[in-house]
Amino acid sequence: MAHQTTPQPSSPASNRSYDTGSPWAAGGTVFAAVLLLVDGVLGVIKGISGIAEDDVYTRVGNYTFKFDVTAWGWIHLILGIILIVVGAGLFKGALWARATGVALAGISVILNFMWLPYTPIWAIVSIAIGLFVIWALCTGSARHDRTV
């Protein structure tokens, strides 16, 4: 007589779905990649402007975080280049890009807060973009991610 086995119920962890059910979260990862690319390109442009001419940006009032505009230019240029690379990695579905994107978006939010006296409106817009990128990368579907 052949030995029959009863199928065992699968554990809840093996049935876990990473899809949040939200269309905002599902499309958010791709949109976050686009935003990282755009924010990176704009960061490069801000950086070049700050490095080339020290009088392009003027500070609005006194502020605790006083850096030379040339120093801010280098900060934005380097961060912009890295954001472009990470945004491209997100399009390829790389898991490292998701984790790095969250970290860099957090750094970008902090730096844009410190950049407020130079371009207040654009800094607030960049902070909002960074927060959306963090949300999208943390809640988006990770099923298609792979290490590259």
Describe, in plain words, how this protein is organized in 3D.
The chain is mainly α. It has one domain. The chain has 4 helices and no strands. It has helices at 23-52, 69-91, 95-114, 120-139. Helix 1 packs antiparallel against helix 2 (69-91) and helix 2 runs antiparallel to helix 3 (95-114). The longest helix has 30 residues, at 23-52. The chain starts with 22 loop residues before the first helix and ends in a 9-residue tail after the last helix.
> First CA to last CA: what distance?
50 Å
Number of domains: 1
What is the tally of helical segments? 4
| Fraction of helical residues | 55-70%
Topology:
Blueprint lengths: L22 H30 L16 H23 L3 H20 L5 H20 L9
Helix pairs in contact: 1-2, 1-4, 2-3, 3-4
Short description, anyone?
With 148 residues, this protein is mostly helical. It has helices at residues 23-52, 69-91, 95-114, 120-139. The chain is 63% helix and 0% strand.
Features:
single chain; 148 residues; mainly alpha; 4 helices; disordered C terminus
